[in-house]
Amino acid sequence: MKKILKRSFPKDKISPQQESEAGERTTELSRSLQQNIEQISDLTGHSSDITVRAFEGPYQLSMAVVYLNGATDIEMINDHIIKPILSAAEANPDSEEDLADSFTLIQKKILTVGATNTKMRLPELIQALYNGNAVILAEGWDRGMTANCAKWEHRSVVEPSSQSVVRGPKDGFTEDINTNIALIRRRIKSPNLWKIDRIIGRITQTDVSVLYLKGVARDSVVNELLKRLDRIDTDSILESGYLEEFIQDQTFTLFPTLINTERPDSVAGAILDGQVAVLVDGTPFVLVLPVTFFKFFIASEDYYERFDISTLLRILRFSALTISMLLPSLYIAITTFHQELLPTTLLVSLAAQREGVPFPAFFEALMMEITFEILREAGIRLPRVIGSAISIVGALVLGQAAVQAGLVSAAMVIVVAFTAISSFVVPALNIAISARLIRFILMLLGATLGMFGIMSGLLFLLIHMSGLRSFGIPYLTPLSPFVPGNWKDAFVRVPRWMMTTRPRLIAAENGIRQKSNLQPEPPETEEKKGTKR
Question: Is residue 296 part of a domain?
């Protein structure tokens, strides 16, 4: 029986518990209503939230509606399932004709619910039940009917907590995948916005949707993504981070090869550029792929402000990431091995500060960095009311106390504080975390080999990044390979009327975004008009 069950249903449609239980009994529905209800009760462990509402339908037919309390809309069940069936029963109280066609009659002529489906086997029926559907059974039916009455509790659409903007839309994704898809379709009202659904997780049966713009996104990227999703065979998918580790190109790298975001406008912009979005039910974070290294420094607000302001802010973000990676290691290397690089006055001042410090510069910086990371993590885990206050007060108190106790120098406190502040400038959290990890490696290299170690580490990182791919797209595009057309939206952002084409290597055949003659022209003045006359 297990072989029959595995052949009839894909693995990702039935949980192992349902498969093992169904293996002991038939998976076919019985014509006995009571037996079907008992089998459903046994398979669900006699759960108290499984509700059975029995009643008499048309043609004196004994019927029952089974639903999951808390996952279905009870008002919809009463108004669009039970009431229409009872009304039909009152209209034909004694008639027994068309009893054989009662299933089709009820499904097509009596029910007023939006969507109904026919299920022939118990595992399918149980899965529909846990998806929020109402299950309709009747005496004499060897099949069940499911009606879409799902009503899961979810948050309302609010501003994203991790990616706030000064100018731009304030709505963010929620944990409901249908709401998230609607937020994207609200911005892209095109029939070319295609959606492909998958159900992943043998136990959780998580809904996953792939959204892309047909004719703009590369078919090779979409096919490769679907192939990687279909290859996943796991019990549970609870968040998009689960999928990220399954589908990313390279696991053992410090650099992320996918972007996650809470902003519908960011996802819509990425789809319009030829990228693909992966939505997972139960999380407000959507994955976007393929990506390049420079995509992590682009904020959605860059396209809502003037191009010169956006360019300045983007350069500032690149500088901040460089500072957060290199500043502590450069301080350690210069104060330990390369004092001749400092002006004499600054060197004397630093030497005076470090006169009573018992630790070398590397241990001093390592101790301060670890302390700050602990404070940052504590500020995140504590309740919001006191989390920020504890982290700020803790940093001030510990820093001042450490300087007065002679454990660290004042210059080291300034270096670590400026490094930490710089790490918050980057809009993408995952690339900022990568910079934090790289910082410790470069600190070790700077403490052992000086500037030579730091340059060697940076060269190794550059070589490593040159070999990375995100679904076949080189990670350092448009720097390597050099794509001049993509530089209009990499380090800088040119005016909107100059961005006539989509990024090469990401978009497919339709690479034209807009016309090329959209540059605004000032109106003619009265003096010029008089001269022409």
Answer: no
**Contact between 114 and 151 (Cβ < 8 Å):** no
189's tokens: 């009202």
Instruction: Give the SS3 label for residue 468.
Output: coil
Q: Which two tokens stand for residue 83?
A: 């009431």
The answer to whether 204 touches 280, Cβ cutoff 8 Å, is: no
Read off the pTM. 0.83
Residue ranges making up the domain that contains 126: 2-147
186, 189, 157, 152: which is closest to 172 by C-alpha?
157
Return phi, psi of residue 257, to 5°. -110, 10
CB-CB neighbours of 271 under 10 Å? 22
Amino acid at residue number 389: A
CA distances from 368 to 78, 322, 334, 487, 517 (A): 63, 19, 18, 38, 55
Helix (H) or strand (E) holding 193: strand 193-200
Q: Are the beta carbons of 160 and 263 closer than 8 angstroms?
A: yes
HSE value, Cβ hemisphere, 13 Å, CA-based, for 117:
13
Q: What is the DSSP string of 433-454?
A: HHHHHHHHHHHHHHHHHTHHHH
Q: Is the Cα torsion angle 85, 91, 93, 98 positive or negative in sign?
A: negative
Question: Is 154 domain-assigned?
Answer: no
Residue 312 lies inside a defined structural domain of this protein: yes
* Contact between residue 506 and residue 218 where contact means Cβ atoms under 8 Å apart: yes
The reply to whether 275 and 420 lie within a common domain is no
Domain shared by 9 and 134, yes or no: yes
d(CA 384, CA 247): 34
E-strand ranges in 224-313 read: 259-261, 276-280, 286-289
> Which among 293, 228, 217 is positioned nearest to 257, based on CA atoms?
293
Cis peptide before 481 (omega within 30 of 0): yes
pLDDT along the chain (533 residues), means of 10: 36 44 60 89 87 85 89 88 85 58 83 85 88 89 88 82 84 90 93 93 91 90 93 92 91 90 92 93 93 90 88 92 93 89 85 81 88 80 67 69 79 87 88 91 93 94 92 88 81 84 75 74 63 56
Residue 500 inside a domain? The answer is: no
CA 247 distance to own-chain centroid: 13
- Same domain, residue pair 339 and 269: no
How many structural domains comprise the chain? 3
Apex 115 CA angle, 112 and 118, nearest 5 = 110
Residues 6 or more apart whose CB falls under 8 angstroms from that of 377 comprise: none
CB atoms within 10 A of CB 154: 13
Do 187 and 285 have their domain in common? Answer: yes
257 contacts 475 by C-beta, under 8 angstroms: yes
